[in-house]
Amino acid sequence: MILSKRTRNGFSKEIADIGPGEIIGEVSLITDEPHSVTAVAHESGAALVLSKDEYLERLERSDKVLAMILKSVVARLRGSYT
Known about the structure:
The protein is α+β, with helices and mostly antiparallel strands. 38% of the residues lie in helices and 17% in strands. The radius of gyration is 14 Å and the shape is globular.
């Protein structure tokens, strides 16, 4: 699966080529912001989809400090994608 991102000048730039078992969309799930990349599959396959509600339910059952750390790390990483 190819992950690409729109550059400031409007072009599409490939940023990763990921394989089976990889996770996509996790940053938007954690930050509740729009997706920052586009994913295009090389071939047909299956995906496990975790809804925002299911994610929040799982987060409620998890350690709150770890959830805060996760959000902080993602925010810092997202800032480095530019």
